[in-house]
Amino acid sequence: MLLFLVTFILSVIFNAFDVLIGFIEHHDVLELREAAVATFVMFFVAVIYGMRRRRGMEREAAKRAESELNLRGSLERLAVVETRYRTLVERMPGATYIWDSTTPMGTMPPYLSPQIEDLTGYTPQEWAEIPGSWVTLLHPDDRERVVAQSRIADQTGEVFHDEYRFVGKGGRIVWVRDDSVCVERDEQGRPRLWQGIMQDITNERSLHEERQAMLGRVMQAHEDERRRIAADIHDDSVQKMTAVGLRLQALRNRIDDGEVAEKLGSCEEVVNLAIVRLRHLLFELRPPSLDREGLGAALREYIEGTRTELGVDISLDKEGLAIEPSPEIRILVYRLAQEAITNAVRHAKATKIAVSVGSRSHGVFVSVVDDGVGLAAEGQDPAEPGRIGLPSIRERADLAGGWLRLLPTPGGGTTLQFWVPSQPGADRNERLLFQPASGTALPSREPL
Fold this sequence. Notes:
Blueprint: H1 2-26, H2 29-90, E1 95-100, E2 111-112, H3 116-120, H4 124-129, H5 133-137, H6 140-156, E3 160-167, E4 173-185, E5 191-200, H7 202-254, H8 258-285, H9 288-292, H10 295-310, E6 313-320, H11 327-346, E7 352-360, E8 363-370, H12 375-380, H13 389-399, E9 403-408, E10 414-421, H14 429-433
Parallel strand pairs: 6-7
Antiparallel strand pairs: 1-2, 1-5, 3-4, 4-5, 7-8, 8-10, 9-10
Helix pairs in contact: 1-2, 7-8, 10-11, 11-13
């Protein structure tokens, strides 16, 4: 830069001298004086311009150096942040990924963390070599459902959440929970980039299946015991009470004393009432209609008996029950609905209850709406001795692969809703498809 300035000034001086010599040869002294003044002015202007030019070039050079220094610092900081982020991502207990939804389904994602090898046995490089890797490695029984769910998420931009199986290296089956969100959209607002994480839930699924099996055994043991007790009551207690009633009747008919006959009649009424109570107990222990006619008929009989016994206005809508559940789920739904109605009457002090039961999303959905005291009071009341209570209703629905929630009823009261799959041990993803968006008290345990 300095060399350029010196060269420029010397060039101006030489040009000025050329002009001066020319004037000396062809003009007089006056003209020579004017030429000298002009030459001096040109020289002065050239010096000033050169100095300003030099300062300007120095400032530009300083700014360029500062910009380069800042850029270098920014790149270094970015590299540090990227290293930290990559370290964090690659230490997470799951395989993270970035998925471009504009590419064909199953295409290798732009980023796939090394943890995918822990999940499936395949490194990210090996994934890239498998045609349609993600779709190809999906378990055949899950592939159609999961791909359909993924396409729906690609169209709507809603959060993708699913549980499915991979067939890993060597044929190893791995259960994963896949959660991803849309992080970038195209110019038309359509989802483009997704960021997600896949976690290994194989052990969790195994524990859940063990809990379901245990629940099935416990429920079966309870029902066997109920059936045995019901048979004993029917064959022994009811028969003996009936015989006592017949003997009292015969004795009353043979006595002429009116006062004694009246007392015997009162005893006979007590015995008959006890027989009615025993028969009602038999129905509660094991309603015969549950096996003969199904869930809807058994609930109808129970509600009619409760309405008569307790004087509570209870209605039943069972028209939506299109598919009869399996025997195990049938008795489970009956017991949960029975307990929900009992809680509404005894704890919430309800005088009006509306029960509806229907088939939804490969399961049974039950709603019990009451006009009782509401959520706060119900939540504070402990379960009665011998009663499973609301927490246990939730637990049993949860173990069966379903859910339970409580909501306030407009105008007062509570709405209790629960859903369980129609078959025991059904895929819990059916639950994910029908999981309620929100609930108040006693939500099902998450994640499932």
